[in-house]
Design goal:
single chain, alpha+beta, Beta-Lactamase, four-stranded antiparallel sheet, 5 helices
């Protein structure tokens, strides 16, 4: 048994681990964000997808923290649709989950039902998260189609229009 060799290895490992434990951490963080032009393109594409199906909707895009980047409302969309679209996008970003997935798990009697009382939370289909390189970068909300599943479809078509840009 070669003790000096093992001692050297232990010393090297101890040095590496202690250096990383005492390494100074930066007080700043970095994250990816959706460029405003890309957010606008996304919203416009989703709105156009709904129009092609004959739906008058509103579309909102929020950043990763749920802060509004853009809202577009078609001329005949109901007056409630801009707020509803924003709340769907905010909910998806805040809970890091597509809103359709939240509908069932937050119904009365379910363990997560209390989140329905969070200000701005809206558990209706039509809110989708936006991810790039494994990170949440924002969310889109669509409101005005005759059902959350159809709002989802418009949002997905909008996301398809920027998909290549997100993975450059």
């Amino acid at each position: 048994m070669n003790i000096p060799g093992k001692s050297a290895l232990v010393l090297v490992l101890f040095t590496i681990f202690s250096m990383s434990a005492f390494a100074e951490k930066s007080p700043l963080v970095s994250y990816k964000a959706l460029h405003p032009d890309t957010a606008l393109k996304l919203a416009k594409s989703a709105l156009d997808a709904c129009r092609k199906e004959g739906y008058q909707t509103a579309v909102s895009v929020v950043d990763r923290m749920g802060i509004l980047q853009v809202t577009l409302r078609d001329q005949y969309a109901g007056s409630h649709t801009p707020d509803t679209a924003y709340r769907k996008a905010w909910t998806a970003a805040s809970f890091h989950t597509n809103t359709t997935e939240l509908v069932g798990v937050t119904q009365a009697g379910q363990p997560q039902s209390g989140v329905r009382h969070v200000t701005n939370a809206l558990m209706l289909g039509g809110g989708l998260i936006i991810e790039a390189d494994g990170s949440l970068i924002g969310a889109i909300g669509v409101s005005g189609a005759p059902g959350g599943d159809l709002d989802d479809q418009c949002a997905k078509k909008g996301l398809a229009s920027i998909e290549e840009e997100l993975f450059l």
